[in-house]
Amino acid sequence: MVYGDTINILGLDWARIHFVENYGMAWGTEFGGKTGKLFLTFFRVTAVIGIIYWLMTSIKKGASQLLLFAIPLILAGAIGNIIDSVFYGILFDAPRGTVATMFAEVGYAPIFHGRVVDMFYFPFIEHGTFPSWIPFIGDTHFTFFNGIFNVADFAISVGVGILIVFNKKIFPKETTSEDASAPTETA
């Protein structure tokens, strides 16, 4: 696909593959130019090391199966985004209006400065308008769910979602001897 190309999924206007490249973090948030990009890449690598440690200690402790499902999802997504960020810039050139060349003689960015490829776009309401009675934003246009994401982002989101939804089951409150000996109230 050429940068910016869109293909409707199953002919649906609200489900699309839309080829874009993310220069920064979620929703394209950037900071600090090239130095910020380098910092972000090394932060991601450090986070992956921490997630690997968390997974290993969770396995040793016999943690919940839900936790042992969620952590690898987060880990796989983080590694996927790191691969793009670290290597994509040296593997591809960046022509606009034509398909990029893989294993180009000269990539579009040095190692650790690549962009993450995003492609899934689900604008459920693309041409909405806020009612005029809403202060400050009345009569302005909006798109409901304008985020464009990739498989790695989806894996991270599902893993984090599992941790949030099943928090009490995954991280049960440990009872102490004081809790066990405390009298219980009866109605």
How many DSSP-defined strands? 6
- Would you identify the regions where 5 or more consecutive residues have pLDDT less than 50? none
Report Rg.
Answer: 22 Å
Mean of residue pLDDT values: 87
Shape: globular
Name the strands of the widest sheet in spatial order. Answer: 1-2-3-6
Count of distinct structural domains: 1
Largest sheet: 4 strands, antiparallel
Please bin the fraction of helical residues. 40-55%
Strand content: 15-25%
Measured between the Cα atoms of the first and last residue, the distance is 67 Å
Number of helices: 5
From the helix content, strand content and strand pairing, which structural class follows?
Answer: alpha+beta
How would you describe this structure in keywords?
187 residues; alpha+beta; four-stranded antiparallel sheet; two-stranded antiparallel sheet; 5 helices
Tell me what you see in this structure.
The protein is an alpha+beta fold and 187 residues long. The protein has one domain (17-23, 34-126, 139-172). Helices cover 42% and strands 17% of the residues. It contains five helices and six strands; from the N terminus they run ββααββββααα. The chain has a four-stranded antiparallel sheet with strand order 1-2-3-6. Strands 4-5 form a two-stranded antiparallel sheet. A hairpin with a 2-residue loop joins strand 1 (6-9) and strand 2. Helix 1 runs antiparallel to helix 2 (65-91) and helix 2 (65-91) runs antiparallel to helix 3 (151-165). The longest helix is centred in the first third of the chain and has 28 residues, at 33-60.
